[in-house]
Design brief:
There is one protein chain. The chain starts with a helix and ends with a helix. The protein has a single domain, classed as 2-Layer Sandwich (60s Ribosomal Protein L30, Chain: A). The chain is of the alpha+beta class. The chain is built from 5 helices and 4 strands. It has a 4-stranded mixed beta sheet with strand order 1-4-2-3, sandwiched between helices. The radius of gyration is 12 Å and the shape is globular. InterPro entries: Ribosomal_eL30-like_sf, Ribosomal_eL8/eL30/eS12/Gad45.
Length: 103
């Protein structure tokens, strides 16, 4: 149930234009200091997870790694996605709250 709320809100973040989808867009946004939250699929490669967790530490950005690439993709109208970053502070906070309720 809470997982559904998280994924629905993620879709809302996309519609609001507050989400960067994919490896390159997320990486560029993080390096520019525009990321408030990183979401990594549990299916992402170990190298990808290591790289984005390193960015998270360096730029002080929280990370959620709890959903499959298909779950994330489905919330965004795609078959799958491994890396996302949220660019809005309020939406990031709400997604973290929903995720905390889930776990």
């Amino acid at each position: 149930m809470e997982k559904d709320k998280f994924l629905k809100f993620l879709g809302l973040a996309k519609k609001a234009g507050k989400l960067k989808e994919g490896y390159n867009k997320a990486e560029d946004t993080i390096k520019a200091g525009g990321s408030k939250l990183i979401i990594i699929s549990i299916n992402a490669s170990l190298n990808t997870k290591d790289k984005f967790n390193t960015y998270a530490d360096r730029f002080n950005v929280k990370v959620i790694e709890d959903f499959t690439k298909e779950e994330l993709g489905s919330a965004l109208g795609r078959p799958e996605i491994n890396i996302l970053c949220v660019t809005d502070e309020n939406m990031s906070r709400k997604l973290l709250e929903l995720w905390q309720e889930k776990i």
